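Query structure, 196 tokens:
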């Protein structure tokens, strides 16, 4: 019942330093670099990544594109999966009371995780590390984003054997704590309380 837990890991650190097959980049629609994790990945991958991405024609919010890892190949990383998370606050109909899953941004963030996992599966990626997409400059509430991230990864791993391993790469211990609360056997082994 909790087999997925054995395939998930939470780490604190710089995503470009991890020993994984693929890393996910929280990019913008241009795919031409920026700050945050995007800046760190472009610096580590070198100018070949920017040259390559100029040929891609950008990427719409909620979608993902896979590229080689350029200089990161020396560290054993084979692919970079670029995805464009939503900017929190762009749903024109939202008033702030929407439960999880009912905002445009929830849907777009879900599609980011789904798209990255599908690309990873289709390229035979064995292990993939995700940053906390949209929770920096793009302002998505951290806990809500983590619920979407963990929920999607869990559902995907339940039906797919590739990737074998998914790493949530947090940039601070505080962020990791949010993920740990969700990636816990206790949470999912508790009986569901109906009527509360
Ligand atoms: N390794 C892992 N996580 C990191 C790293 C790193 N090296 N650096 C930052 N984070 P953000 P967004 C965390 O702002 O909100 C860029 O300019 C960070 O603490 O990088 O999706 C793009 O070009 C946070 O938890 O991405 C876009 O314009 C998470 O990564 C825009 O920012 C995401 O923060 C995208 O904004």
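Result returned for the query:
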């Amino acid at each position: 019942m909790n087999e997925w837990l054995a395939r998930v890991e939470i780490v604190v650190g710089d995503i470009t330093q991890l020993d994984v097959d693929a890393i996910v980049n929280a990019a913008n629609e241009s795919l031409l670099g920026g700050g945050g994790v995007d800046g760190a990945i472009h610096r580590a991958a070198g100018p070949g990544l920017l040259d390559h991405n100029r040929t891609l024609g950008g990427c719409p919010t909620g979608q993902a594109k896979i590229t080689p890892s350029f200089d990161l190949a020396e560290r054993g990383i084979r692919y970079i999966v670029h995805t464009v998370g939503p900017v929190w606050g762009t749903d024109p109909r939202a008033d702030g009371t929407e439960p999880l899953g009912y905002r445009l941004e929830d849907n777009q963030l879900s599609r980011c995780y789904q798209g990255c996992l599908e690309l990873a599966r289709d390229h035979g990626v064995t292990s993939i590390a995700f940053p906390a997409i949209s929770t920096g400059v793009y302002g998505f509430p951290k806990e809500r984003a983590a619920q979407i991230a963990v929920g999607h990864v869990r559902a995907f791993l339940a039906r797919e054997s590739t990737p074998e391993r998914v790493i949530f790469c947090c940039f601070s211990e505080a962020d990791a704590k949010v993920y740990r609360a969700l990636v816990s056997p206790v949470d999912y082994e508790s009986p569901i309380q109906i009527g509360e």
